[in-house]
Amino acid sequence: MKISEFPDPFKKEREEKGYDSINDQNDPAMVILGHKNVRKCAHQWQTFQSGAKPGRIVIPSEVNIRDTRQIPFEVDPPEHKSYRNLLEDWFKRPLQEDYKNKLTAQIENIVDEVLNIDTIEVVGDFSLPLQSRALTLLLNIPYAEADLWISWGTHVFRSDDSALDANKANILYNYIDAKIDDAIENPSDSLYSVLLNSEIDGRKLTKEEVKGVIILTFAGGRDTVINAVTNSIAYFSEHPNSLKALKENPAMINNAVEELVRYFTPLTQMGRVATKDTQVCEHAVKADSRIALNWASANRDERVFENPNEVVLDRKVNPHVSFGFGTHNCLGATHARQILRILLATLSEKVTEIKIVAAKENIEDLGNFKRKVGFDSLKVQFKK
Ligand code: EMZ
Fold first, then answer.
1. Is the pTM of this model over 0.85?
2. Distance CA 188, CA 211 (A)
3. In which band, very low, low, confident or very high, does the pLDDT at 170 lie, cut at 50, 70 and 90?
């Protein structure tokens, strides 16, 4: 199997039943596998809520490692809409020329850097610094702050020995608390200050609400962006002609990004909690039990995607759900897309070959299913 090949572990169950169940810290979830049902359930926010106990809609559940509600991710309509309206413009800034230029400079720099080094480890030496530096633009804070985040490693809630590490998570929470206090003392034009000065339904946001937005900004786009970047590098190392095709036809880049994001689906699934007894796929779902919207499985659904297990870089019709679907679609998607578009443009301009030296896969353990989501490490050589 090629290193950039990511198999679909859900095919059989999706086609035979359309769902499966997983146990997760004694809070099982019914996993919805088909594209149509995933989208349908994502739409039904009244029946399948996001505003459950903080951390419960994440799989694996984070109820044991945090109390702060992530906003707007763990809030249901109508409150959700007020928060979303407040945040929408800020999270669309990546479309602005000035933002794009800064992001381009960051990405060109890091590509130039790795072109001068013999062998690099992509996850730690490329994707993590790239993601962390780009985050300084999203928060609108000084570039140097990225060094600290890089030192935290790829996932804020995970360490090498534990998938859910409360001590590690506390580093992030304490850091954010301190930054919020600092922004109160020294207002600036950072996201912290903008939020502290914002009003929702005629009142100022509380510190806890500001923290909820900031935690989401840090956590939601961290391992997801890192995996998307790393996996794309693995793909181009094994498909040098695709890189050439993008160089010759840059207009293809946007489609290519959507296709890579579909194929790799950096976030496997997201949960919801049933507000009443109901049914999905003719299967009973009890009130207060969880379902999981499995984006990764939906994105390989043969009823929707032709040759779903192939990367078709210029795929035209691509209703993937990698950024979720419905009211809660990903707030950070504009930022993530810009990172990947600029990365592809830069690689196609500057790099002719990426040679894989060694790879260690990162396999997510989902009970009955094991899914490759990325790499623990990927050593490569970049060639000019
Ligand atoms: C949560 C989640 C959001 C969660 C859209 O995804 O991403 C996960 O990586 C985090 O662990 O807390 O932010």
1. yes
2. 17
3. confident
